[in-house]
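We modelled the chain as a single entity of 349 amino acids. Its sequence is:
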Amino acid sequence: MDKINLMDLSFEETEKFIESMGEKRFRAKQIFQWIYRGVESFDEMTNISADLRERLSQNSFTGYLRIASKLVSKIDGTIKYLFELEDGNAVESVLMKYKYGYSICISTQVGCKMGCTFCASAPLGFKRNLTAGEILGQIITVQRDSGEKISNVVLMGIGEPLDNYDNVMKFLKLANDERGLGIGARHFSLSTSGIVPRIYALMKENFPLTLSISLHSTNDTDRSAIMPVNRKYSIDKLIEACKIYTKETGRRITFEYAMISGVNDSAEKAKELGRLIKGMLCHVNLIPVNNVEGTGFIRSGRKTIEKFIEVLSSYGVEATVRRELGSDISAACGQLRRSAVESGKGSGD
């Protein structure tokens, strides 16, 4: 029988699991606390008996992730992790330091189905969803390894979060639980390529995270060419869902827009974007596209980006340029895993 990942369990599920082993319920609290401290093995749980530790090791594991590779930026201290999962697959996380504290960008799937042409993950295809515990394990492992308390979480690494909806929602509730990490709901940001039905489902969850939409284009022809998901959920349907989301939740949406030279960065494209989202409770995050081998895309120049912002401002749309971190370690999602897979490691095959 497969072993249970204890990070997959809520506090109440941990209680039931411990009781099923014939133990008193209070043991669950002790074990839950150890798990969230980031223990790597049961031997570190010094306040429970050796017998219980042995029985736990026979049918469960702590969920602590093995760090296969770690890169530290000499420019800004950003740390990029490659984790090896129990089945040999690999995912990435990135720890970033800001004035307000530490933020982590985490993965939600092994690979991705969306096939966005500018993404380093796309050529590797999709392997499987991550469990709630595997998503949570990225935060807990990084906190222990770095010695830093993480205050903000961005679901913007490998994978489409809303394509792994149930596990992502369970993860959010686990990470938000005050008995565990206790990260406030407003300190989570979830980025989606635009799976419209799941945006409506998220709206009903009453979990006040920040929703980010990977838009990157202003018409269906162009967006479908770089983001196949648009062939199923058109821009009109996506924008309609976003308007309803902001109205029902009162939460501002962030539109992510990768600036690709000669593709979507002209003043005319800025006008189209301005007309598309004018009057919405939103913000635009401009992202100079990453130079990923094989895509042929080149990032827009500084003057082009400045002109784009100026045009959006004329429509009353606020836009900023994402701060680039870890440029010397290729901190963009998917690049480290791609290198590992191409060298024969972390493929899961």
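As a brief sanity check on the tokenised model: The longest helix spans residues 132-146. The longest strand covers residues 90-98.
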